[in-house]
Amino acid sequence: MPARLLVKQHGAVVDRPADQLSELRGEHPCWLDIANPQSEEFELVARELELHPLAVEDARHGHQRPKIDQYETHYFVVFYALEAGPTGRPEGPALETPSPGVVDYHEVSIFVAHNAIVTVHQGDFSARKLVEKRFVEGHLQTTGLLLHALLDTMVDQYFEVVDQFGERIELLEQFVAEEAGPNLHRAHAPLRELFLVKRDLLQLRKTIAPERDVLQVLVRGDIRELREIGKRAYFQDVYDHILRVTDEIDTFRELTSNVIDAYLAAASNRLNEVMKVLTSIATVLLVLTVVTGFFGQNWSFIPYGSLPLFWLFMGVTALIAVGLVMYFRGRGWL
Q1: Closest of 57, 66, 16 to residue 37, by C-alpha
Q2: CB-based burial label for 51 (10 Å; 0-12, 13-18, 19+)
Q3: In what order do the strands lie in the sheet with 67-70?
Q4: Residue 97: is its pLDDT beyond 50?
């Protein structure tokens, strides 16, 4: 996908060659979108706008923490766009493990200069397409509104991703609750899935939480190019959305931990029940072993060849076993 320079001229948005950014941004709001950080267009724009080498290096190499840096002629913003992948349950029995959802992370580097916005990213993402449509239709009049639209659209898509995690956790919670009885051993797969969800939520929070600092700078109006009357409220709205998303992530992480604790408690109770039964059986067999061991000694006064004594011994043994079983049942151990 080649670089696109969109310029707002005479009430309309037109495409221009990327090398005309410097001469057009003096009078017209411009948006240059670069889908390949290693492209020649990015090198050209970096020279024309005198972008700081550290910011250019961060944009090229990627894997940056969300941040906002101030330089002499521009600002450098790193933000993330997230897209929810498919989720659902595979074919099979009604209580099979749901397949994990997929979250696509798109790192977006944004250079904010006088009357110009330059976005650098790898590939394409849906939030950029939505903002481009609004910009072309004439709904975004200034670079400040363009930056707000980019950040707001990306943040709004966070809710879809977080809601997907909520649905997965709810489904897994249902699995664990239904299998918490005699078939608890079948709930191992949902338990593994819960740990994966918890790991994904941690990664999601590590990505989104630092973006609050970026929005705080924009809300305070520290960027000279964005000091437009009445525009801080727009970034305040995005900041509120970020807070809501992080709160939801924390809630789902806590819910995931609670479901895991509930499963482990159910497994512990199930183990206690099994051990109680096995201990009772072992106790019955222990008493019988003592009785048979006593009469199994080679004493001459015991008439081993007496058939009535044999059946008497068998009856006493059976009576002891039945008595122990009834006693254990009365105590609730069996």
Answers
A1: 57
A2: buried
A3: 12-16, 4-9, 30-34, 116-121, 103-113, 75-84, 67-70
A4: no
Measured CA to CA, the distance from residue 235 to residue 113 in angstroms comes to 18
Query: Tens digit of pLDDT for each residue in 81-92?
Result: 998 765 443 333
**Are β-strands 75-84 and 103-113 bridged in parallel, bridged antiparallel, or unpaired?**
antiparallel
Among candidate residues 90, 64, 89, 69, the one with its CA nearest the CA of residue 79: 64
DSSP state of 260: H
Tell me how far apart the 2 most distant CA atoms of the chain are, in Å: 123
Q: Are 60 and 39 in contact (CB under 8 A)?
A: no
pLDDT tens track for 137-171:
888 888 888 999 999 999 999 999 999 898 888 88
Q: 């060849």: which residue's tokens?
A: 305
Q: pLDDT value at position 2?
A: 74
CA distances from 116 to 58, 73, 197, 221, 252 (A): 19, 11, 40, 17, 39
DSSP E strands, 89-197:
103-113, 116-121
Alpha carbon distances (Å) from 48 to 25, 43, 77:
12, 9, 19
Q: Which two tokens stand for residue 63?
A: 């894997």
Distance CA 320, CA 308 (A): 18
With tokens 């989104």, the residue in question is: 208
Cα separation, 189 vs 120, whole angstroms: 40
Tell me the percentage of the chain whose pLDDT exceeds 70.
Answer: 84
Angle between helices 188-208 and 143-178 (to 10 degrees): 160
Q: Which amino acid, one-letter code, is at 29?
A: P
Residue 268 CA neighbour count, 13 Å, CB half: 6
